[in-house]
Amino acid sequence: MVRARIKAVDLRRPDLRRPFPRHFVKRLTGETVVALTRRAKYLLASLSSGETLLMHLGMSGWFRVVRDLPAARPAKIDPHDHVVFHMSSGKAVVFNDPRRFGVMDLVRSGQLRDHQVLSRLGPEPLSGDFDAGALARACRGKKTSLKATLLDQRVVAGLGNIYASEALHVAGLSPGRPASILATPRGAPREAAYRLAAAIKQVLEKAVSRRSDDGYRGSPFLVYDRQDEPCLKKKCGGSIRRRTQGGRSTFYCPVCQR
Ligand SMILES: [Zn+2]
Q: On the CB side of 255, how many CA atoms lie within 13 Å of its CA?
């Protein structure tokens, strides 16, 4: 998409989780994608028009890039293909989303920071802005559980349910403990905050690098979806448990996570 022009947009339904913005097709057609970036779980395509196409995959959304066929022989369309971007590069970029929790919106690029879904986001976990100090400041005096805190996008942006469980396991912290244990009463980081900030970066970096490893097979997770299976930490001997916190599944080892 980058540096290619959007020749045409095939919009196959009026909405995903929310309706598409007004004149969606018209506002995209003929524009060049200047850059593709990301903030938290939002994909951002900045356009030559001065607008940004903001996209979220929701639960089940994904993109595929295929060779664009002439209009006379249209590409095979799946019932869950909702948006097709026909690019000047000769590629079609297809958004498929069976459950339709995805989001697409168009925002003036200069107002992106103030967009309702982006304005309250905390630091990017892999950036220098996120460290033990930032984590401790956000957790000072907080009675909410560590697990729920890691899912709070104001504390750290874009860390999902799976990697919150994984990071707590790597850090050896029990998901049910209050977030306040990471900080002194003045908001300075305790040792656990250093461990947890490092664990978050470690599990995300591992996940990103795995994405480029096509040969990967088997469960990539330490605790997620491993209920009743043995803990993988050396000499631990515990087995993984599952509990529900705030309506989401948490997987943890009760022996080595304290
Ligand atoms: Zn364990």
A: 13
**Ligand 1 centroid vs 222 CA: distance in angstroms?**
10
Distance from chain centroid for Cα 49: 27
The pLDDT tens digits for 127-175 are 999 999 999 999 999 999 999 999 999 999 989 899 999 999 999 999 9
Residues 47 and 150 in one domain: no
Separation of 249 CA from ligand 1 center, angstroms? 18
* Å from CA of 181 to ligand 1 middle: 20
Helices (H), 119-223: 132-139, 146-151, 161-171, 191-211
My answer on whether 108 and 188 are in the same domain is no
pTM exceeding the 0.85 threshold for the entire prediction: no
CATH code where residue 54 lies: 3.20.190.10
Identify residues whose C-beta is under 5 A from ligand 1, the ion. Answer: 231, 233, 236, 238, 253, 255-256
Task: Looking at the structure, tell me whether residues 59 and 171 fall in a common domain.
Answer: no
Residue 23: which domain range?
6-114
Residues 143 and 201 grouped into a single domain: yes
Distance 162 CA to ligand 1 centre (A): 17
Do both 232 and 145 map to the same domain?
yes
